Amino acid sequence: MPSGKLVLLHTNDIHSHFEEAARAADYIKEVRRTVPAEQLLLVDCGDHLDRVRLETEGTDAAVNRSLIEALGYDAVTLGNNEGLTYTLEQLDRLFAGAPFPVVCANMALAATGRPPGWMRRTLTLRRGGLNVGLFGLTAPYTDYYDLLGWQASDPFEAAADCVAELRAHADVVIALSHLGIRQDERLAATVPGIDVILGAHTHHLLETPLDVAGTAICAAGKFGRYVGVVEIGRGEGDGRLSVGGHTVPTEGRAEDAETAAIVSAARQSARQSMGAVVATLAAPLGGDAASESPLGTLLAGALRRVTGAEIGLTNAGQLLDGLAAGSVTRERIHAICPSPINPCLTVLTGAQLRQAFEESLLPEFVNLEFHGFGFRGKTLGRLCTDGAEVVFDPSAQPYARIRSVTVNGEALDDRREYRVGTLDMFTFGVGYVDLKQGRVLRYHLPEFIRDLLADALGDERAVADCIRPRWTGGATAAAL
């Protein structure tokens, strides 16, 4: 590492991938042994946590805070997995008294118009002989943040204000951005005065910085598989700022022992806290992603009831497995339904529903593999429904297999609008894309679909009813 310069290490989108994070920690500690503390800056650009991991879920992310503390991060910003999957009260507990600042300029409490006590808009540090000004930005999911008590503002306006503020005393201005690569490019092009943008959110890897309008844009991929390194200094003659950077892969490195020990202890604590029994089943409930399943139907029914809808819809791929007879714990429900996805109430036409049902009979949809938008399953899976019953002919041509659909006993009307309780994931246009075309009436936060599933498992009538098929196909359908 060069002497007389600021060495900036950055991580992003670790998403509680603790094994990779332990290898990243090994590299970070190696750098700490070779670079003087007064020249080193370590930051994270959000989504350090992900509630898909038992250790995060069962400790309310205390394990993630412990890892950030142990590595001595100088600043972190708020990702959507922090801001959207935890309530304000939970975040207050998580970050209260933290030795690292959470820096985010476009988030404030709706009640006061100010950031919470553990968050600040900007931060200035002295490192490598430079006054370093930092500010953070996060994607403004206003529909969600409004329901959680946040006020999310325009990140570009916030950035312009921060640059004007920091430029008065900072030699270098750095944005910790959880906006995504395209928004980072726009930020660099429209807000002058930012020297470095450290990116996140879209999981993009920039092995060397991208120059846009004189701003260096950097990003280290996802999951801790890379650590970003930026070297910043001033020329001895003209005093001009120089910025260079690269990423370091962590594959093949040893796992840092301290990190592994923190995660192991959290795992034990999480299993104790999530060992509570939430239901006892007299018979097993299947959860096959490729077909209609009782557990998927149970979840669809829960979505319909909680949202007050006529129809409940979920994709069977939300459920990674079925449930055996006997006691069901919180840990088991989390294991089969790990996605931090919220219910929502939408309005869809009969024609849009019919199209989604047709897509649900096609392997390119059922077997679709993807990650993101809250989805932590493997494949999209068949649509499971409650309130609607579908008769289909599996031997017919694609998009002509549905023979009839009834909604609460009446024939589906393609022109009529229906209230549908479903997943927020679909409103982002992923999976069954016609489900995005509807009108969102309400997102239900902070409830996750696994919370609905846990409640439904304790409802004997709902459990008994979910075994009844809502999809009918085969010879009978072909004869209709």
Question: Can you describe this structure?
Answer:
With 480 residues, the chain is α/β, with parallel strands linked by helices. It folds into two domains: 265 residues, 4-Layer Sandwich (Purple Acid Phosphatase, chain A, domain 2); 203 residues, 5'-nucleotidase,  domain 2 (Alpha-Beta Complex). 31% of the residues lie in helices and 28% in strands. The chain is built from 16 helices and 26 strands. A six-stranded mixed β-sheet has the order 7-8-10-11-13-12. A five-stranded mixed β-sheet has the order 3-2-1-14-15, with helices on one face. It has a five-stranded mixed β-sheet with strand order 20-17-24-19-25. β14 and β15 form a beta hairpin. α3 packs antiparallel against α9. The longest helix has 17 residues. The chain is elongated. The termini are far apart. The C terminus is likely disordered.
